[in-house]
Each structure stands twice: as structure tokens, then as C-alpha cells.
Amino acid sequence: MNSNLQSQRPPLTLVPSGRFIIDKDHRKIAEMYQPGDSPAEMEAIKRRIVGSFNALPDIVGVLMRADKEGALWQALCNEGITDSYDAALASAVKALGEAGIAEVALRAELDPDSIRAKAEQ
Fold it and tell me: Which residues lie closer than 8 Å to 66 by C-beta, 6 or more apart?
């Protein structure tokens, strides 16, 4: 008897409608998101941005301290990536802004002008 009841019911039909999946009675069954658009993904992206922003002063400070004696530069030259390093460091210093440069100078005990100079290379 149960199988007769199931065979009499029309199959459930779901269709996309804008941002939603609806049934034949136009009830919203689910909401669709573009990649990176869901609330959970947006929060994850925000956490990554904040984490990157917080790590940037430390990374710039470590790299500049490591290159005080030119040893880092020599290693980069041996790998053939000095141009990439210069471009990445310049972008990082520009992203820091003046407040970030002051923070790096204080934390890494570096001259702020030497940090600013990296943005112009």
C-alpha cells in the first residue's frame, strides 16, 4: 500500500530561481552563493586579510634585519629572484603605510628611512 501512495505523488521538482532553489510551489528550499559569497566564506576571507595585515610588519622587519649584512641578498641573487624580492618588499612597505613603517622600525630596531627606501626600489 505504501508503494501505491508513493507512485501517485508527483516527483519533487527543484529549479533555480535567481539566488534560490525553489520547488513547484515557489517555496524557497535553499539559497545559492557564488564562490566566496557565503557568510562563512566571507568571514574566512576577513580572517585571512586581518591575519596577513597583522603579519606584514613582522615579515618586513625580519627580512630587512636578515639583509643587514647582505647575506640574504646574496642568497636571493644565487636563486635569481632579487627582482621578485625587491618588488614584493616594495609592495609590502607601501601596504604598511607610515604607521606600519614606524611599527616595523620600532620592533626591528631599524631606521624608518631605510624601510621607506625599499618602497622606491
Answer: 72
